[in-house]
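Deliverable D4.2, example record:
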Amino acid sequence: MQKIKYLAAFVTVILLISSVTAFAQDTKTGLTGASFLKIGVGARQVALGSAVTTLQNDPSMMFWNPAGISSEKTRISFSHNEWLLALTHDAVAATFHIDGIGTIGAGLIYIGEGDIIANRDVAPTADLSDLQADQATGANYSFYDLAANISIARQFTDKLVLGASIKLIREKIDDLSATAIAGDFGVIYNTGWKNLTFGARLTNLGGDLEYFQFGAPIPLTFAIGASFDIASEEGNKLTTFLDATKPQDSPQLYFGGMEWEVLEKISVRAGYKFGFSGSRDSFGTKHTDEGASFGAGLVFPWSSNVNPRIDYTYTDFDVLDSTHRLSFTVSF
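Output generated by the structure prediction step:
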């Protein structure tokens, strides 16, 4: 037990040191690459306002806090997001348990568009001829972004879970592409009192994406979070979630969410991102572009071993069109 305490303290210190070192740099607002990594994966997670550092037993958590995938069951999740500008953002994740090792998972995020009309008649503002070997000449072009994850989480005690992921990030537009490798690290600790849980995560720690020999950092993020049951009895519970999140390229952000679960079958959720990607109007009042989210979930009584769940989330955008997410998860 003493070794476990030392291990938990060590991991927490490493996360804190890594975050302080990473954010000691000047804030690079709008200059990070792989911006698709900032898009929330999973209808349940987004419905909770992305305040999900302590969420567990969900394969999509490998894209947030890898410690959250820990489970004794095999789980598979599919997520579809009708994103902005008619783009579709999709993800798949699967996890399974191995005795003596922990929970292993693999997942993929993809967003892309094809058959975009190309305008290649505009003269470049700089001479890049020495930096590129070829130049596409087609009438159309396409682009895609993807991230492929391999994750592991281990339950060291009935209260402590540690997790880590390694991911391949790739962006391609027309005939140009860039690739980077990154890692995610997380810890979750449940105190055992009213399901009070604390967590910390460091995501997207890795190298730059390079285009024309110019590097763009990936969106490094550090977050701490807490959650607890306000009320709980006989399969019904009301849980609140709070996160303090610090992206490398923006100020401190605060997320919050609540989930009401009825008979372990029906869930109603709501969340809010405070000051997320905000702007100020002519009166100086700050508005958030991606603010409130509302969602619901339903577990189908399939069998005693197989438990499919479907989740839906609506997210309100102040300026742009609202978005819709749908997730399907099955555990067995």
